[in-house]
Amino acid sequence: MHDPAALRIALGSIYAVGAILAGLASRDAVGRQRTFWLLTALLLALLMAAKELHLIDELTGSARGVVKLIGWYGIHREVQRGLLIALSAVALVLAALLARWLRGSTAMVKLAAAALLFLLGLLIARAISLHAVDKWMMAAVAGMRRGWWLEAVAVLAICAAAWSAMDRRRAFSR
Q: Domain ranges in the chain?
């Protein structure tokens, strides 16, 4: 389901701000923290483009078409559950590796990493399109879908962490 244009632009703008702030935070970081902020900036920029181009919706629609084509639509819920379990296991392993890789990093880097993992999990759950998850995320809260609120809050947490991590005097004086 496509987001309304105004909301898509607003969320895209939040992603853009997050990418810029993460890029600026990387300028003051060293080592793994610098790499983390650079990768976060790149990932947020890619997610912004995906939001603008409706790539998650397109991916979900294409996967649904493939499932129908190969005759699995009758068992699509089981396929979705299996995919969710497999991706959850991969996510847990990646989270553990990321935690180990970022050990000794600042609290702001760890906050941004947690928010980024949450955001990616949210987007993957949405892409898998489990009916119960979709129903919960599509419910309106204060005029906006619950999933959009969660997405915006996760990106804003990354923005806040990047803002806090950078030396603003240097970042804006160059």
A: 5-171
CB 156 within 8 A of CB 15: no
Q: Is 85 exposed, middle or buried (0-12, 13-18, 19+ CB in 10 A)?
A: exposed
DSSP string, 77-120: HHHHHHHHHHHHHHHHHHHHHHHHHTTT--HHHHHHHHHHHHHH
How distant is the alpha carbon of residue 21 from its chain centre?
16
pLDDT of the chain, 174 residues: tens digit per residue: 455 778 888 889 999 999 999 999 999 899 999 999 999 999 999 999 988 887 777 877 787 777 778 877 777 778 778 888 888 898 899 899 999 999 999 999 999 999 999 999 888 887 777 666 778 888 888 878 888 899 999 999 999 999 999 876 565 665
Sign for the CA dihedral angle at 165, 20, 32, 101 comes to: positive
